[in-house]
Design goal:
Layout: H1 12-15, E1 27-28, H2 33-45, E2 47-48, E3 59-60, E4 82-83, E5 91-92, E6 98-101, E7 114-116, E8 121-124, E9 138-140, E10 145-149, E11 162-164, E12 169-172, E13 186-188, E14 193-196, E15 210-212, E16 217-220, E17 234-236, E18 241-244, E19 258-260, E20 265-269, E21 282-284, E22 289-293, E23 306-308, E24 313-315, E25 330-332, E26 354-356, E27 363-364, E28 378-380, E29 385-388, E30 402-404, E31 409-412, E32 426-427, E33 433-434, E34 450-451
Parallel strand pairs: 1-3, 6-8, 7-9, 8-10, 9-11, 10-12, 11-13, 12-14, 13-15, 14-16, 15-17, 16-18, 17-19, 18-20, 19-21, 20-22, 21-23, 22-24, 23-25, 25-26, 26-28, 27-29, 28-30, 29-31, 30-32, 31-33, 32-34
Antiparallel strand pairs: 2-6, 4-5
């Protein structure tokens, strides 16, 4: 999962905004009657767990001046207004622990430019009347209990820059009308129950920087039109039911930094998955149906730091140059059919922190060159057919905190040099052919928490 950590909003002020027709701490009747009454009707329908009557949301008549009007009661500590000084005069407020539904009348607040209702307990569907809010720039509905389908009329909101509707119970398709939202930079729909294909119209969103509909029930191919998203930086499609190959046009997105495809039914030759991706830092292709050999094509990703291809059908040629960048910090090739010896070239990954090669049908000995990986913290070689000794020079990996060569055919004594790994917290040597006594020097492993 999530992997994926996304910074949704930059500050606490922007985290607590609902642009509504209120002035300072109260609603002014200077605004249109339709909009004001719609807002007050909404207020009456809300259930706020600590302050159900919302006393500071009060309508004052126009003929009461600031000097003659009684001061409104102070707002609850749980929320504070943030007034915009952009000529509109519309402040912004956010409440926590709201329940009930979003009323249809919200579509009458036509001056609304930001709607932030996130992290509440709102239920029901997203009203189609949101499509009337033509000035809306930001829509934050995440972390609620909203259900039903996304209204296609939201495609009318051509000023929208951000949509955060993740972490709800939304169903149905992603509307093709979203292709009209040419200013959109952020589209976050993850952790819902959306279904159907990704509409090819998403490729019209030339300003889109983040597309994250992961953890849904989307199916079908990845649209080739996503390759037209020249500004795309984050593409998170994992944990769906997507199938077919990764489109060739998507492999040349110059700004793409994170591409997460794990947990789908994608196919294709692993050597053809990447193209010219000069800024790609993290790609996860795990638990799909890719095949073929690792190849030098990965050299087209000079900034690649994390490569995860767990649970596919890939192989390797131990004499081949994989082209992996020396900036690589994490490599996980577990549960594949690589078959063969551990390539000595892996000892050239001088920045590597984690190397996980479990259950990939390895045989032969552990190459001493792995001991040159001075930054290595996590080494998992378990569930293979490795034999011979555990190299004494592994003690050079002074940052190693996890070492697991279990379920192999390693033999001989446990080297006393292992006791030099002062940061080692877990050592798993189970199911090998090791012999001899356990050296008293093991007391040097002062950080050890699990010995198996």
């Amino acid at each position: 999962m999530a992997s994926s950590a996304i910074v949704k909003l930059p500050s606490l002020i922007s985290l607590f905004r609902l642009a509504v027709l209120i002035c300072s701490d109260h609603v002014s009747s200077n605004y249109g009657d339709e909009e004001t009454q719609a807002f007050l009707k909404w207020k009456a329908s809300l259930h706020y767990h600590n302050h159900s009557s919302l006393p500071s949301w009060t309508l004052y008549p126009n003929n009461i001046t600031n000097s003659s009007a009684p001061p409104p009661p102070p707002p609850p500590k749980e929320w504070q207004p943030a007034v915009h000084a952009n000529g509109t005069g519309y402040p912004a407020t956010m409440l926590n622990q709201l329940s009930g539904s979003i009323p249809y009348e919200i579509g009458q607040l036509r001056s609304l430019y930001e709607l932030a209702l996130y992290t509440n307990q709102l239920e029901g569907s997203i009203p189609a009347s949101l499509g009337n809010l033509s000035n809306l720039i930001s829509l934050y509905l995440y972390d609620n209990r909203l259900s039903g389908s996304i209204p296609p009329l939201m495609g009318n909101l051509t000023n929208l820059v951000e949509i955060y509707s993740d972490s709800n119970s939304l169903t149905g398709p992603i509307p093709s009308t979203f292709g009209n939202l040419k200013r959109l930079t952020m589209l976050l729909l993850f952790n819902n129950s959306l279904s159907g294909p990704i509409p090819p119209e998403i490729g019209n969103l030339k300003s889109l920087q983040s597309l994250s509909p992961y953890e849904n029930n989307l199916f079908g191919p990845i649209p080739t039109s996503l390759g037209d998203l020249s500004e795309l930086s984050l593409l998170h499609l994992y944990t769906n039911q997507l199938s077919g190959p990764i489109p060739k046009r998507l492999k040349i997105c110059k700004n793409l930094t994170r591409a997460l495809f794990q947990g789908n039914q994608l196919t294709g030759n692993i050597s053809e998955v990447v193209g010219e991706c000069p800024n790609l830092e993290y790609i996860d292709l795990s638990y799909n149906r890719f095949h073929g050999e690792l190849s030098h094509n990965w050299g087209r990703c000079p900034r690649l730091q994390r490569l995860e291809i767990v649970g596919n059908n890939i192989t390797w040629n131990i004499l081949a140059d994989f082209g992996l960048s020396t900036s690589l910090t994490s490599l996980d090739l577990s549960s594949n059919y690589l078959v063969g010896e551990i390539p000595k070239k892996l000892g050239s990954l001088t920045s590597i922190l984690g190397m996980i090669l479990k259950d990939i049908h390895l045989f032969g000995s552990i190459p001493p060159k792995l001991s040159s990986l001075s930054h290595l913290e996590n080494l998992d070689l378990s569930s293979n057919r490795l034999n011979g000794l555990i190299p004494e020079r592994l003690s050079n990996c002074s940052h190693l905190y996890y070492l697991n060569p279990s379920n192999n055919k390693l033999s001989g004594r446990i080297s006393i040099q292992i006791s030099k790994l002062s940061h080692l917290s877990e050592l798993d040597l189970r199911h090998n052919l090791l012999s001899g006594k356990i050296s008293p020097q093991i007391q040097g492993l002062q950080s050890l928490e699990n010995l198996m």
